[in-house]
Amino acid sequence: MSIITTVGxxxxxxxxxxxxxxxxxxxxxxxxxxxxxxxxNIETATTEDIRRATIALGLDQPLWQQYLLxxxxxxxxxxxTSYIYHLPAFDLVMSKLPATFELASIxxxxxxxxxxxxxxxxxxxxxxxxxxxxxxASVSALSIPSFWLSMMLIMLGAVIxxxxxxxxxxxxxxxxxxxxxxLTLDGLRHLTLPxxxxxxxxxxxxxxxxxxxxxxxxxxxxxxxxxxKGLSSRRILxxxxxxxISVPIVTIVGxxxxxxxxxxxxxxxxxxxxxxxxxxxxxxxxxxxxVLMATLTFVSVAFVGLNAIVDLFYAVLDPRVRLSA
Amino acid sequence: MPSKDLGSALLAAAFATAVSVAPLGATAFAxxxxxxTSYKLMTLDPHYAxxxxxxxxxxxxxxxxxxxxxxxxxxxxxxxSWRQLSPTQWEFKLRDGVRFHDGSxxxxxxxxxxxxxxxxxxxxxxxxxxxxxxxxKAVTTPDxxxxxxxTSSDAPTLPLSLTSIFIMPHKADGFxxxxxxxxxxxxxGTGPYKFDSWQSGEVLNLVRYDAYWGNATAWSDVTFRVIxxxxxxxxxxxxxxxxxxDYIPARDVEGLENRGLKVDSISAARSNFLQFDIxxxxxxxxxxxxGDPIKNPFRDxxxxxxxxxxxxxxxxxxxxxxxxxxxxxxxFPPGLSGTSVKLKVEAPDYDGAKKLLAEAGFSDGFNxxxxxxxxxxxxxxxxxxxxxxxxxxxxxxxxxxxxxFSVFATQRSNGDYPVWYGGCSGEAVTxxxxxxxxxxxxxxxxxxxxxxxxxxxxxxxxxxxAKAMEAGPERNESLARATELVMADYPILPLYHFHLIVxxxxxxxxxxxxxxxxxxxxxxxxxxx
Amino acid sequence: MKVETIRAxxxxxTRKSVSLSKLLLATYILLALVAPIIAxxxxxxxxxxxxxxxxxxxxxxxxxxxxxxxxxxxxxxxIVSTILYGLRISLVVSITSTAIAALIGVAAxxxxxxxxxxxxxxxxxIVDLQLSLPTILVALIAIVTLGPGxxxxxLAIIIVQWxxxxxxxxxxxxxxxxxxxxxxxxxxxxxxxxxxxxxxxPNSIAPxxxxxxxxxxxxxxxxxxxxxxxxxxxxxxxxxxSTVASGFQYLLTGQYWISLFPGLALFGLxxxxxxxxxxxxxxxxxRNRSI
Lengths: 325, 529, 291
Known about the structure:
- Chain C: It comes from Ferirhizobium litorale.
- Chain C: This is ABC transporter permease.
- Chain C: The chain crosses the membrane at residues 20-39, 91-115, 195-214, 256-277.
- The complex is a heterotrimer of chains A (325), B (529) and C (291).
- Chain A is 75% helix and 2% strand.
- Chain A contains 12 helices and 2 strands, in the order αααααααββααααα.
- In chain A, α5 crosses α8 (185-218).
- Residues 321-325 of chain A have low confidence and may be disordered.
- In chain B, α11 links the parallel β18 and β19 (397-403).
- In chain B, α8 runs antiparallel to α10 (350-359).
- With 291 residues, chain C is an all-alpha fold.
- In chain C, 73% of the residues lie in helices and 1% in strands.
- Chain C has helices at 2-11, 14-38, 79-115, 117-131, 135-146, 150-177, 180-187, 192-228, 240-246, 248-251, 257-284; strands spanning 60-61, 67-68.
- In chain C, strands 1-2 form a two-stranded antiparallel ribbon.
- The radius of gyration of chain C is 22 Å and the shape is elongated.
- Classes of the chains: A mainly alpha (325), B alpha+beta (529), C mainly alpha (291).
């Protein structure tokens, strides 16, 4: 009963969120400039041509009418056609999704184990120099602007060492009728640097969380009891502490995964990674409103959706948490 | 000149006609070519957008009736010869034995279909190509290999107009839509390469068309990778990820050459210049030294002349473009048809400029905003900064403002700027004379880039007369005279003709850069070994 | 110099590093204040820039009669001067926006708690909406809508950050309201203004202040990111972020100094703010002391 009302509240809130965001995004991109200048050949198009193209895109209508039309179309699942690529906007977003998804997944595959190990290590020796260094390293890692981190990774890995390419996606293989690059060696080489750039702040976040969880567990009577019984530290750590701190960690992993869909904007732009984030920035720069709206909607839905799943998961795992709280 | 049949084997490479393509057997080179390009292929519809971004890549698949060589002169393409039957009628003889990639023969019906698709079927926002065909009244086909085109008014340069129109195979059931071409159907043309696969804005894969009518192509397959950042293109070339990279920034040439890579360049058929708001009494962004509003200084020829004299154009070409640019005094680089040999770039004369300014009543100078796009053309924002320094020496304080191109273009057409950095390119200098210097006139289609509302009646008349003349030395001479007349009034401040720089690795022996800025596999000749 | 400082932060025990990060932050603020005096060049003045000396390597001699210690950027601006002036922009933007965001947020949170009913519903609904989206997305939408410019960036950051303060302040204010002394105040028919300004605000501000350093660090990073994406400061007024961004195209061909040094300065700034922020939080929140 309470779950249903919560889900209902969630849904209506998400719906409201999308509506407000689409309105702001719509008005925002409209005020920047006329996309027609990116479509016509500015050097041959007469004022008349530009006027006609503007009319053809419906950009001569009052903004509120354009917005209503947009809403009407979205209800039928149509986000419109990209001004630049002349492809259905939502299909375009979907075609970029595998690239972002595999990048975020690999980044998380790097970040979660590394972060947990560091956190367990630090928390187990609370107050030691290892602990202090992990803590400081995590504050530092969270202070590095992600665009600068990406650029330094390129400088080190691509320019100085020459081990990895500086950008692009590399060779892809078709699987489930989508193109994936993690299945080829060339693709993995292209994936390494951007995945690292995305992973570093997440390692720091996860390590901090795992550390504080471990400290809390270590101070509990149960752990002391185990130790008194002569169980090895390692056994206590992996059999007892780790399962107990897994709930908050899974939560943060889920939330950060959703966040990566959005934060990949910067990393994807720098590594010329053809994902959803780069599409978002490109569509802003090219004033491609249908694509911008489709991307914004998709990222918000994914983010909100993932968070809701995480909450649900949290409630299932940990009965103390009440969804309605 | 184009009237004799040069034979099907000659001039096979679509644009690089002057390149001596080594006679290589088709089987000798089964190698693939990878090209890193700045051109993002936007759509597979060859008639959708009249932008190099599209046409450059699609010219592997589709061909035109007439090609343009590196002097921009028309050369046979799918048409082997053409002649003017009357001032409003042209006859084109089509190449025999040409087949589309789907096996169907190329005939006059395809020409009719393509022209009508552009003229009648495609609706805005596509429509850039309409400019070239809207004067066509009727297309008739006396026989399958002859096309007669009738225009509504005199069309002395119709073959040149047709260098922009790609030929598609006709369809029995109406015209193909852009959506259709983008999604379901594979694009089919007569070109040397067949379409294999693409991802919009990312990659285009092409394979050799074995039944191509012309010289066998040198490469078994071609992969285009869209790499928008110039630095990333340079990096991809130097690490060997691609064999060719276009639009190399001048500053990277030395580094590439040090790594054993080669670089070819040519002066682009275009210019970049400053334009002034001449139409309004008080354009925004111009104030007196104390911030008070002043009357439009750019209406006075002496002010425009003074600013021209105070701009060190040689510096822009030599130091900002590092020699990969030519200081400009007109719209196309001298040497191309219709340009003047008399117009020269003078060394800056700051004292003379100051004197002129004082004569015009601006002895104290003024404040002005100087706008431009960011990173659209080589050296754009750097030039604004250098010009600001130049003009400061004659008491004019400049506030440079740069914005992404679409934002800049929107604000320029809104009339938000008093002086701005612009550019023009095209298949002939007449296009830029029309767009930049002729008075705005919707009926004639002139003045599309004349945002400053410059009017010069005697120039307009001379230009109309020159354009009506038949292609040849006399027409070129008249165009040059008209250019000299208008430039003496300093309507714009030409800055430079930048050079197109293309780099390539060992696999490629030479690359013939085309002044129109196209990047194609046909321009690349394999190295001998 | 900054590299050493950061390394030192790493090695020394906690007590010492507190003072070190504070020292670093103080140095940054001092440098920003005296930038016009100590910078060899004013990178905002086109007349002092020599475009032909663009991307000179570190230690190159410049036409202005001084050495480009850290080289020049792609437009010929001295990197040292650009860092100093960029620091000013980064600090002005982040401090202004964080301060205003905190004020607005606390005011909104307290109002929501005090007035309750629809005021509470409206304010908290907006807060929930905003906090359920990634900050970078909110910032992107805001800046696209507002347009470019320093004042717009400040506004965008305020829009992003006020909600966090509002949520915290509301929580604190609600618990204050439930305390008896406020009931007494109300019974005495004290004017609303007085209740809010004398009792609610002072008590709600303290918890909000613990957030300030963290949000300040976020603000610096956010300004840099927006500028990096080309949606921030104008090109003739470079911030640290936009300078790093402008160096990207030179990085791949080995001209590392345009991105490296301003980026290091930016990293040092954010790190010092964050370390100080950690300490502030630890001091103010006794429960966190052990963690």
